[in-house]
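Notes to self after the Tuesday call (sharing in case useful).
The group wants a holo model before anyone commits to mutagenesis around the pocket. I volunteered. Ligand is zinc ion. Logging inputs and output together so the record is complete.
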Amino acid sequence: MVRTRNFALIAAALLLVSGCGHTEKKQARTAGHRLSAGGKARAAQAPPQRPPAQRKIDCDRLKCVALTFDDGPGPYTNGLLDVLKKEGVRATFFIIGQNVHGFPSAVRREVMEGHEVGDHSWDHPQLTAMSPAAVKSQIQRTQDAITRASGGVKPTIMRPPYGATNKRVGQTIGMPLILWSVDTEDWRYLNTARDTRVGIKEPKPGGIILFHDIHKPSVKAIPAVIEGLKKRGFTFVTVSELFEGRQLTPGQTYSERMPPKPASPAPVTASPPPTGSPAGPQPSQSRPQQAEGH
Ligand SMILES: [Zn+2]
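Result:
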C-alpha cells in the first residue's frame, strides 16, 4: 500500500476533527459524519462513502439464504468480494479481530459493498473454557478493530468459534449468537468440487451457510455455488436481513430463520387463521419446500 506524506497529513487532520484517534492511513474517513471543512474539500473529489442501507426483503415469502464467511479477513477476501459484487450478492463476514490489521481495507470494503460484518472473537478460542472477563476482552477488542477498519460500523451479531457457547458466555457476549444450518466443512476437505456440491444442494429456505474465506478452495467454489442457488430460486441476504422482522435476543443462538408459524401439517384443528393482513398478498406461492423438516 502506497503511503504519501500528504495523505498521512490529511489523514491526521481528519482524525483530529473526527475524534477517531486512530491512525488508519489514507482510509481515515469516518462513515460520513462530522466532516470538517477539510473533509468537504476532500469530499469534492471523492464523495464520502457510507454503507448502503439494509434492504427490506420478506424472507417469509422468498426463498432466502445467508452466505456466511468465517475467520477472515485473509488473502482471498478481496477476490471473494469481487465475485460477490459481480453477482450482486450480499453476504456476512464473521471476522477474527487479530486478522483485521493485516487486511483493514477488506473490512472497509465489506461494509461499503453492503455486506454485514459480525464478531468472531479476537483469536478463535473456545469461549466456554474462558472467564467472563477474558470472553469480554475477546469480543471488545474485535469490536474495536472492526469499527476502526470499517470506518465506524460496529457489529451487532456474534458467532462463537466452533459454535461453542453456553448461557454464561451468551450473557457475557450480549449479542445474538449466529450459528448455521449448513456446515460445508470446507476447512476439513479443502475441495472446491465438494464445497460446490454441498453449498448448492443442502441449503433450505431461511438457511445460513457456513464457509471460510481464508481457504482458497472455498472461495473458488463460490461463483458456482451462487449460480446453483440462484437456479434453485434463492435470494441472497445478510444475516440481519434474513431475520428482518424477528426479534433476536442477546445471548440466544440462531441457526436459521424458521417459518412464521409452525407450518401445521393439516388443518384438522379449529385454530383460527393466521392474523396476517387479510387483503394482503398470499403468504406464499412457492412450492411447499418451507414445510420440510429442519
Ligand atoms: Zn471460525
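Two things stood out.
The CA atoms of residues 13 and 38 lie 8 Å apart.
The domain at 64-254 is CATH 3.20.20.370 (TIM Barrel).
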